[in-house]
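User: Here's a chain of 477 residues. Predict its fold as tokens.
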Amino acid sequence: MRKMMTSLRKLLMSKKMRYGTNATILTVVFVAILIVINLIVGTLVQKFTLKMDLTKNKMFEFSQQTLDVLQQLNQPVNIYALYQQGQEDIVIKEILNRYAAKSNQIKIDFVDPVKNPTFANKYNKDGSSISTGSIIFESGDKFKVIKSYDLVDYSYQTQSASSLKAEQQFTSALIYLTSDKIPTVYMTQGHGESDLYGAKTLLEKENYKVENISLVTTDIPEDAGLIVVSSPQRDFGSEEIEKLDAYFDKGGSAMFLFDPGNVDLPKLEAYIKEWGMELQKDIIIEGDQNHFLQYRTYLLPDIQSHGITSRFVSNKVFMLIPGARSIDILFEEQSGVKVSSLLKSTDKSWGKVNLETQTIEKQPEDSEGPLNIAVVATKPVKEGEKEAKLFVAGSSQFLDNSFLNAPNFANSDFFMNTVNWLQNKEESITIRPKSLTTERLAISQSQALIYSAIVVIVIPLLVFVMGTVVWLRRKHL
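Assistant: Prediction complete.
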């Protein structure tokens, strides 16, 4: 017994036991510290939503417009996401959760349409089915349904989603639910106007009502927020011009779009001259290879500084204008009318006057660049209490669906910014879709072999050597 006690005492006093005890104590302390840190971080995450967006395109980072809308949200909003249980879209779920984290007025529920097939029936106002993946925003007696295909833009070249429009759609829905009045955009008919299907769809998504109007038979309604005249092929009559004039005298706003051609519109052109603009019967040819895309008539214009384009200039985005005629500015300011250019071609461009010619090369009769592509004018009315506004562009084609949905160009943003400016709604959102393009890392075969050797041979060898050294040191303790 005495020998056993002596042996035990020696074991307890040995270096191995002391090192082992110290190692055990350090391990316990380290694990305890990790547990405490984990509890603290978990509490902070739940309380303050500490998350960082490390995606290249800031997929989960909100624009300032969205943050402003969420900060000013003062009524309860219920959001219903229709997904089968366990099949939720993790990206959409994360974005929705971030909306809820920014405002205590937002409540999110995930509804399984298989288990609850009749849930979406009361939101089916237009007769079209509400499919899985749709998001429903509801506040009071107002609601807005966002279909799954409205959340992305598709590339017809790659046959895949090219950009994500979730923030754009969700914030737009919040604005719709909290707005007291829905503005109406009237598009004129009866003069062979072009059909702006893409623009109509975009306006409706941005919470505008779109109606057609014939100024021959109807006066401009009181609820008209904007009049759109798109590439007319026949001139307006005197009575129609008078109706437009009366509308502007009340502080109205209009958007006139024209395409290249030899169509004579004497009354309409004369009326536009009163606003300090003159339409030219030409087509703009761009000579600077950095300012056209494939064809010299597919213009990448210089964007001028203005309230409509301020974000475009600072963010260095591009627009694509396919086929445009030029607009001369007759004066910058006269009798209270102020005229400004929004889009211009470069000084290497020219206006091709002979539209029947087979050559695009510059001829002596052609006008010199830079040439105006889009122009705006303002005019004080009602003794300066209100301001009438007019936007004139030398192209309507930039509002075609294919150009509005092109993620590399800001055509849709430019259009909506213009509409909002004409409506005196400069604070409205202009949120660009987030690109979903995946960038691949390109490495050579030799680089692949080197990286493979490092991972398969070098790193395991270092671990083995370090382990051997530690084992030898402990063996001689």
